[in-house]
Amino acid sequence: MTNRRMGLLAASVAGAAALTLSAPSSADEVADFYKGKTLTLIMSTGVGGGNDLNARTLLTHMTKYIPGKPEFKPVNMPGAGHVRATNFLYTRAPQDGTHLGAVIRFYVLHQALDGKGVKYDATKFNYLGSTTVSNVVLGAFHTAGISSFDQLKKKELIVGGTGVGSGSVIFPNLFNKVMGTKLKIVQGYKSGHTIDLAMERGEVKGRAGFTFDSMMAVHPTWLSKGTFKVLAQIGLRKEPGYESIPLAEDLASSDEDKKVMRMFAGVVGVGSPIFTTPGVPKARVAALRKAFAATMKDEAYLARMKKIRLSVNPVTGPDLEKVISDIVNAPPAVLAKAKNALSRKGLVKCKAFTSAKYCKKKKKKKAKKKKES
């Protein structure tokens, strides 16, 4: 090698080294960004439910793994069957990694079925992962006098629901249309916790759309003491420990109905997703995913989750993105059948059924200012 070539090579190596030393690493950039900041955790449910508890617990432990160790503040944003919170995260929240969403899985289904008010694309969010997958249940309070699913086809059961796009309305409606049950759906309760209180008051007699995990976290003795009888479960496979409870898919009477119920079982597979907004720089998304993965193995987090009776059975961000893409892009025939099964006819308004203090308040529309002539 000539002296000239050796000189050029040495200069090139020196230049690269200098560039490496002068430019901060992506990890340093992420740490610098998050240092001193406060993350906003948007939850699509009210305070006190399983989703609320799960998300708050996650962020309490996860922030120590995020470069810069930011704080976080929880914001509950229930409404419109989880569409309100999802729309906010997609259209209004900063696209910089400072806002995270913990939204009940039905926002994905709502988009797939061309639901009202959707301003988001669920496939465009940056998913960190899902903390767990737990089957959805349909059940009756002990005062209802119902002990089997077949009885629901002969005897009316009054069930409580929140938003029209929430699982507490979607699933009982689905059972009525596809499985021939006689569920009377009272729609418009403030939250799932409010429905539980309504059952304890004897106002409604059942509930659908929440998970085994949520129920065990908030009401750990309901199953063991026979307070609440689970009549069917919705999921891709039976919940461990509850194999005696039939899957909804197995209760369907036709192949077409089984396919519809199977699609909804897939929705259950979304689990308890945590995501950030679209447009976030890749280095920050990678850092958040790494922090999520580390938290799933954190001993303090696992101990806390066990104490509050929430299971940890995580799904990675990339795997979750595939599950959500499959739902949104399901075959048209399946989507059409599912959409037809979710007609909202026959819903009973909360305020017409019980005291308005238990029901969601309708937002007043702001009057438009008249233009000056």
Describe this structure in words.
The chain starts with a helix and ends in a 20-residue tail after the last helix. It has 2 domains: 27-133 and 270-331, Bordetella uptake gene, domain 1 (D-Maltodextrin-Binding Protein, domain 2), CATH 3.40.190; 136-268 and 335-358, D-Maltodextrin-Binding Protein, domain 2, CATH 3.40.190.10. The protein is 42% helix and 16% strand. The protein has 373 residues and is an alpha/beta fold. The protein is built from 15 helices and 12 strands. Mean pLDDT is 89; it is low at 8-24 and 368-373. It has a 6-stranded mixed sheet, with helices on both faces. Strands 8-5-9 form a 3-stranded antiparallel sheet. It has a 3-stranded parallel sheet with strand order 6-7-12.
Summarize the structure.
The protein is an alpha/beta fold and 373 residues long. It has helices spanning 3-22, 26-34, 50-62, 83-91, 106-112, 167-179, 192-201, 212-218, 248-251, 255-268, 282-295, 299-307, 317-328, 332-341, 350-353; strands at residues 38-43, 71-76, 99-102, 126-130, 136-141, 157-161, 183-187, 206-211, 228-234, 273-276, 315-316, 348-349.
